[in-house]
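Table 4 source record.
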Amino acid sequence: MAEERIITVFGSSRPREGEADYAEAFALGRGLSARGFAVCSGGYGGVMEAVSRGAKEAGGKTYGVTADFFARKANPWIDVEVRKKSWEERLFELIHLADGFVACKGGTGTLVELAVVWEMLNKSVMKGKPFAVLGEFWQPILDRVREVEQESRLSSAPRWGEADGNLVHSARTPQTAAEYLDAEMKKV
């Protein structure tokens, strides 16, 4: 049997069924599951619920990493709940479990997740784990940070991973995000 490949999906807890961001995350879960990925999320509502629901309804396996800090129950589409005490432990478990990542539209929590994963890739703390952002929401932030990270190409400043090329891929649709992750993992 093939080794399980897990994609951790980050995103807002705010979207509800019937909203565009929920539908997009649901389609992402279906697309990831169709490519044989298990889906991991923070386990609660919004994007986390939608991506888990999409994966489950497509026959996939789901993980939810929850924390005592939030004092909430996991959504009903989680197969395996991993419970941590703090949000920091939760974040690093979401990263540890993953073979790849997708960041959907989100607020400060998603921004932290995006930044930590990107920094771990940039400083080579973690290698070989593809990362995609879904849609255009994060593009202005990626562009601004790259102004700093990629300017070292032209100077004597220390060079980190981002200086050698974009470590975070921008995917316009859930399908292209799933295709990108699948293709990148096949290269390894």
